[in-house]
Automatic annotation (TrEMBL):
Keywords: Cell membrane, Membrane, Transmembrane, Transmembrane helix. It is found in: Cell membrane. It comes from Dermacoccus abyssi. It is a multi-pass membrane protein. This is DUF350 domain-containing protein. The keyword Cell division does not apply. Pfam families: DUF350.
Amino acid sequence: MTASDLLYDVGAIAAFAIVGCALQALGYFMTDLLTPGRLADIIWRERNQNAAILVSANLIAVGLIVFTAIRSSHDGLAAGLLSTAVYGILGLVFMALSFFALDALTPGKLGALLLQEDRHPAVWVSAAAHIAVALMICAAIS
């Protein structure tokens, strides 16, 4: 491996990491928009476990999609970065749609359940839906 190969690889890793982190941030903000209140306050100040579970599932789901997209990209750096971003955004769209579908099919408002102090089982169902959607996107990518 030459020094220029190493520099290229380090740059590619950094570029994929930037795309992945941007998608993670986008997933966080999407979850923040779908739920009442401000997640930063709800999780870090109020220490709400329901919101933390949902955000954690979202971050894992996005990470799975980004991982699969990176592992499946063989068409060069630019195409790999683009496909990773597109697949990540697609996953976020479908996670949001699953949140709306679950909210419509179940009693109460899912977002309001997140604000409860006690853990609510519906949060686990929503978290599982996020991961399940991500796994479907991962299977479609690979």
